[in-house]
């Protein structure tokens, strides 16, 4: 499934994309702020498909946002994880980081390391005061992991966060068997707002970011980590 020209021939392809669509539908219904992007250029972006009559039709993004208009809905089932947030805990390293503070809060933490083993590093926060609800809605606090270098034909995964209560997300590369250059460079962006609230760490001057290798980590190198605010 890692090759675009053949992905649709993999049986798991359709199950995967159906579940992504289902999760997006769930996300939009669990909070008032969870809305589709309303940028007109994005909404009016069109794609050409052949319909059931083998006729070429143009479909825009806005045509695909409401699954009911597309003629289907998802079964209403219990979603256990919605009501079972793990209890947060502050690690020893996190307490040390808070006590020590950081000289320049807007700095980027440079690594230049291979993620062969678990890595923990202190990352400063540009804005350290507890923000009001409106401020959080206007600007999302984002963890940015830059300069992720890896081999395109190697399965790669590493998690950001040491355990369930402090888990922020994952980076994954599905192998691509192609003749072009094997090396690739990418960037991972993860929202921190809800996680910092759960940890009671909104006033902390810095956060401890832990990278946990899962597979293919010996083929991954991390450039730097920073925190920024995006509108």
UniProtKB/TrEMBL annotation:
Keywords: Copper, Disulfide bond, Metal-binding, Oxidoreductase, Thioether bond. Pfam families: PPO1_DWL, PPO1_KFDV, Tyrosinase. Residues 10-21 form the Tyrosinase copper-binding domain. Gene3D superfamilies: Di-copper center containing domain from catechol oxidase (1.10.1280.10). InterPro entries: Di-copper_centre_dom_sf (IPR008922), Polyphenol_oxidase_C (IPR022740), Polyphenol_oxidase_cen (IPR022739), Tyrosinase/Hemocyanin (IPR050316), Tyrosinase_Cu-bd (IPR002227). Its cofactor is Cu(2+). Belongs to the tyrosinase family. This is Tyrosinase copper-binding domain-containing protein. It comes from Malus domestica.
